[in-house]
Description:
Blueprint: H1 15-19, E1 30-31, H2 42-54, H3 64-84, E2 92-95, H4 98-109, E3 118-122, H5 131-134, E4 142-146, H6 157-163, E5 168-174, H7 186-195, E6 199-203, H8 215-218, E7 222-226, E8 236-240, H9 242-247, H10 272-291, H11 298-325, E9 330-333, E10 346-351, H12 356-364, E11 368-369, E12 371-373, H13 378-383, E13 392-396, H14 403-418
Parallel strand pairs: 1-11, 3-4, 3-5, 5-6, 6-7
Antiparallel strand pairs: 2-8, 7-8, 9-10, 10-13, 12-13
Amino acid sequence: MTDSMTKKVVPSLDIARIRSEFPALASGIAYFDNAGGAQVLKRVADRIYDYLLSTSVQIGASYSSSRQASEKVLAARRSMAELVNAQHDEEIVMGGSTTGLMYLLTQAILPGICEGDEIIVTNSDHESNIGGWLRLQQAGAIIRIWHVDPATMTLPLDQLDRLLNKRTKWVAMTHASNVIGTINPVAEVATRVHAAGARLCVDAVAYAPHRLVDVQASGADVYVFSFYKVYGPHYAVLWGKRDFLLSLPSLNHHFIGPEILPYKLQPGNVNFELSYGCMGIHDYYLTIGKELGASGTNRQCMQVALDHFARHEDMLCEKLLAFLRSKTAVRIIGLAHIENANRMPTVSFVVDGKQSEDVVRFMDQHQIGIRFGDFYARRLIEDLGLQAYGGVIRVSIAHYNTEQEIDRLTDKLELALQA
Length: 419
């Protein structure tokens, strides 16, 4: 075989090395509720510790500690801009949660809403990307619902085309469902939405932990997710196109003008220590990418790390799905196979004749952390008729999970199904 025909060897992910970054994993608990909240990187916690014990002062003053604090907070914003591929770091708005940031966004949009303006939301989103938009009805907005097809567990694009019209102002959708795991074609949606003269808001809470975010490639006008799902603190980020953000009124004090980004959308300012801590996520991706042999720009190195994470997660997820497919009493809610990275490693299912809570409580006895419920995607659970089970059982995998943990999970699920 010639050199040109030699298949390139892809370095394998050193899971022991990966797990060493997450101290909580030493507890012996198998964490499979990662879509609810991932384990936190030590390097994130170290940065929070460093900020609080060295520069816990108000930013913006002239003395040295305040200047250092200001530099750390600005560095964090720039780091997050690179992480999501923003063109300007002023496009990065940080806050306590995705729900809170979406409330602030829709409050800022509210004065520009006119009677008869239409907003399209899906029935598959977490309520954080639905509830705020519904509040715009007070200004006369009309809400249209884009429904998941129960047969394919996807959002049909032809249905979106029928909903879009000259009165449509916004479409709000999830990049990936936190229940069914479906990855939505947001770039294609953005093309259609913009052709109709509307804007697109994407909730990426269930997507960002598993892929390197690229807000420019997404085509979205607004993109939001939570850091505590991405191995960081309980904090969140909203990116918006600079021109759009500048068009919004200020939500801050009356003397903070609409031209002051992102401060005008961060009433009370950011949480300094959590912002600085989030830099650890960027640092982790970059470090792992370089250890895997990557070179080039920071984002190119981070991409290598996330690609390795995704391959590992897909392998674990397919192993779980194969087990579930073999059980006649189990109904997988979502795509039953992973093919060409077509879904997230978030797997929901129900069991004939059993309440979802009972299965989860059984697993609790074996230090396996899974979950049941609607996961704040209540409209989807109700529309799919799953409330009779008490919601779904959800297993959400992260890149630090192991094959041994999947085996442990399926062994105990076998017993739970027989109980």
